């Protein structure tokens, strides 16, 4: 595949472009100094100090197109994306609440069956929420609470120049017919396997091996790494040929895909082997794919060629500025 075409595909990918409104929404919120808020905007979950622990808070809404195409999957993924947000932070998911808005009760029932399946598989309960029974639309939104030790949280704004970049993906999956950019790795697996994978980043956090990390979400592997670099104020060079990929899967589709179980991390080079081995222990393929640098640009390499995919001096993915969010003044969050 031509590298320039790949760069264009990634930059125009809706999973990337629709993130640009995040900073516009955040601009309405007051910039407050809150000593117990350790991190907020730009992270997969907000981090709130509670004694020696951290509470992790996240929420996700499911895209209307997915709910229309497959209501069951919409419910299932409403749970999964929240679990992955907590997992990415090195946390343990505790409980969720949901908001279901109903125009069609039959559609709602399919959504709830999807939620039921995910809750049963991963063992994290829905403990409350809110129901809108008389809406002009169907929608599902879920919020989640997780926890981690304060000194074991994995942030996404803390990458440092010289870090190895690791991409980790479960290659045992498939693209469902109605989800061209969602790599399903969990629906066919048993609960024990899914739960081990859900807690893999918690193990990495406990060992303090990662400098930063995120779960691979709608922007895909490259877009997610771009968000991490943007909030860290860093750049990187990524060797596309080193990214784990299943045989027979189109490269552009793969790099833009949401991963049922997938993460990008940065870590000191001396920690990379341990991180890769921990992922291998739960059936996830990981590899060092590049290096973090101070250029504030993200460059892709493939077949001996190089191309810039993001220049964060002018490009915006989320636009989140970690220095301008609620939190302790001394903390870059």
How do the helices and strands line up, and which of them pair or pack?
Layout: H1 3-12, H2 14-17, H3 22-26, E1 37-39, E2 46-50, E3 53-61, H4 64-69, H5 71-88, E4 92-101, H6 105-122, E5 126-132, E6 139-149, E7 164-169, E8 182-183, H7 191-198, H8 200-206, E9 212-215, H9 220-232, E10 235-239, H10 251-255, E11 258-259, E12 262-267, H11 272-280, E13 285-293, E14 297-302, E15 305-311
Parallel strand pairs: 4-5, 8-11, 10-14
Antiparallel strand pairs: 1-2, 2-3, 3-6, 4-6, 7-12, 7-13, 9-12, 10-13, 14-15
Keyword list:
333 residues; alpha+beta; Phosphoribosyl-aminoimidazole Synthetase, Chain A, domain 2; 2 domains; seven-stranded mixed beta sheet; six-stranded mixed beta sheet; 11 helices; 15 strands; 28% strand; globular; disordered C terminus
